[in-house]
Amino acid sequence: MTQRTDAATKTDPAAKTDTAGSPAPAPALDADALLDDPDIRIVVCCGSGGVGKTTTAAALGVRAAERGRKVVVLTIDPARRLAQSMGIDSLDNIPRRVPGIEGAGTGELHAMMLDMKRTFDEIVEAHADGERARAILENPFYQSLSAGFAGTQEYMAMEKLGQLRARNEWDLIIVDTPPSRSALDFLDAPKRLGSFLDGKFIKLLMAPAKMGGRAGMKFLNVGMSMMTGTLGKLLGGQFLRDVQTFVAAMDTMFGGFRTRADATYRLLQAPGTAFLVVATPERDALREAAYFVERLAAEEMPLAGLVLNRVHGSDAARLSAEQALAAAENLDGVGIVDQTAGKAGLRDPADRSADSPAAVPAPGAAPDTTPDATPDNSEREDSEDREPTPGHVPDTPGTPSVEELTAGLLRLHAERMQVVAREQRTRDRFTALHPEVAVTEVAALPGDVHDLEGLRAVGDRLATGSVPAGAA
């Protein structure tokens, strides 16, 4: 695997070993060094679904632009989150300038979303004359192929990336890939395309056009007779004719498809490309991350590191989960949380001793509901003028006492610390398997990212490798 070990990775030599026997910390990924490196022209964000790839790609784009680079973010994810967070009404196949980018430099940010069919149409229009291009674009089989044929999206992503890089208009291209393992399917696009073009079915369909005349028609009748009996019944003879017409029209373009795909594949292997694997500290997400790391190594793709997203922590990490649970149980055990809410249960002993015995009903006695003929408002006035006792809870039915709230918060803290411990174990397992992978940890935000300020906050965490309190 082509592993980046230059300025994008910060390693502490003293952290190579751990005297306690626990896994040594992974080298730290320096995101700013990666974004500032003028030799890095492409950053590809990959990972399983729901781990924050789109947000990560957008945050990297904003940060790079505000540090002076001219950036375009290409998303293959059809979700509209990227456009919304950047304040753009919608994204399409054309890079759109993102307003509101700040910074002292001359940086710019553009964003776009891959339109698979439009990209395919552009290729046809660019590499075929007007009449042939029109015949291809109007062909029913082409329309089905360009709209959603298996593997077409990944190949078109390769094409669009190659187009953006060839224009040499941007300093940095950031690619947000589709979710799940299909995120790396575009690496297979050239191979699948080659297999498709070299397949016997395609060669059979191309032969009549190449031979031409009666000989071609004779060959077509002989060659197609084996298929029309079965495929004709299943798909219809018109479908087969549409396919044959499409292949004949595309014949001169097939070589260009393969050449461009191979060139983009080599571009992804070049030192100017950096892959970032994005994951959350959950078992399934890190299992997928391990798959991406191993696959990139097998394809000799340059891996910059792992972005560990939405890491949890606590500012009260010194209080362990066990201690918090024990404290909550102690509150339950002494019966404090079972006291009646209100003054009788929470008033200081001195205040309670001053009360008249008649004011406190005997256990089990029915409350006196007889109205007083001469009500005394002095107690009400005194209570209104009296300073509230610290920690006092109003006499509202159903209002939990301070002790009940404390016990509940202790249990919540215990749950949070258990989550922190589980995430740490999951990270340690990944690090043990892939100690060479540089990691930056991004603390979970309190809410969703929906604007540039949110993206800047994510970018800050990406750059500093911020670990939330209690997560280390």
UniProtKB/TrEMBL annotation:
Pfam families, per the entry: ArsA_ATPase
Biased composition (Low complexity): 355-376
Lineage top rank: taxon: Bacteria
Region (Disordered): 1-31, 342-402
Residues of the ArsA/GET3 Anion-transporting ATPase-like domain: 41-312
Biased composition (Basic and acidic residues): 345-354
Example of a GO MF term: ATP hydrolysis activity
Protein name: Anion-transporting ATPase, ArsA/GET3 family
